[in-house]
Design brief:
It comes from Yinghuangia aomiensis. This protein is of the alpha+beta class. It folds into two domains: 105 residues, no CATH class; 80 residues, Malonyl-CoA ACP transacylase, ACP-binding (Alpha-Beta Plaits, 2-Layer Sandwich). Helix content is 32%, strand content 36%.
Length: 195
């Protein structure tokens, strides 16, 4: 495979055109490098063994093995810049999922925030309130106190669930959840005072 043919494939990745990874691997897959802009605006240089491009939610993603982070990563193709050949041929690694689509879907739907709170209430009462949360673990800390550890995508639901227990609680982590509780408390206080 000549560098020119590899460059056309890298350009296809940058422009969001799908590439069949199985055909590429059969011919011999090559590592690529590119500049990447994360969702928070952080810039980084990446070296990746590309596995497959995946279309999800009307966006193209590149799934590949990140050589510097020694782990699977997904990259939005519209945030990839300056793709270049970056090394020799590689043998594809086994993907930790049935398909590239299944891997990306699991990654995109996994709860992002770990939350831990200490609640001044019996564990069985709190566990009943969290019975529909498959992520929640309720640990007794005595007869009238327990710790709840869970994972959530957003804090709003959790603020309501814990708040409706109508008991005191302390946020252990993360600070962002404590900030959200404070903001909600301020709004409720203002509403109760008529302004």
């Amino acid at each position: 495979m000549t560098p020119r043919r590899l460059w056309r494939r890298a350009s296809a990745i940058r422009n969001g055109r799908p590439v069949d990874a199985r055909r590429r691997v059969a011919r011999g897959a090559r590592r690529i490098g590119f500049a990447y802009t994360a969702a928070d605006g952080a810039e980084s240089a990446r070296r990746v063994e590309p596995y497959r491009q995946v279309l999800m939610r009307r966006r193209w993603y590149l799934l590949g093995w990140d050589l510097d982070r020694a782990d699977w990563r997904t990259f939005r193709l519209d945030r990839v810049r300056e793709p270049v050949p970056a090394g020799a041929l590689f043998a594809p690694r086994p993907l930790p999922a049935e398909t590239a689509y299944a891997y990306l879907r699991a990654e995109m739907t996994a709860p992002r925030h770990r939350v831990a709170v200490t609640v001044e209430a019996p564990a069985d009462r709190v566990a009943d309130r969290f019975k529909y949360d498959e992520q929640a673990v309720v640990e007794p800390l005595g007869e009238q106190r327990c710790r709840v550890v869970t994972r959530v995508d957003s804090f709003e639901w959790l603020v309501l669930v814990v708040g409706l227990l109508d008991v005191d609680f302390v946020v252990e982590e993360p600070r962002a959840f404590a900030d959200r509780c404070r903001a909600m408390g301020g709004r409720l206080k203002r509403a109760g005072s008529g302004g």
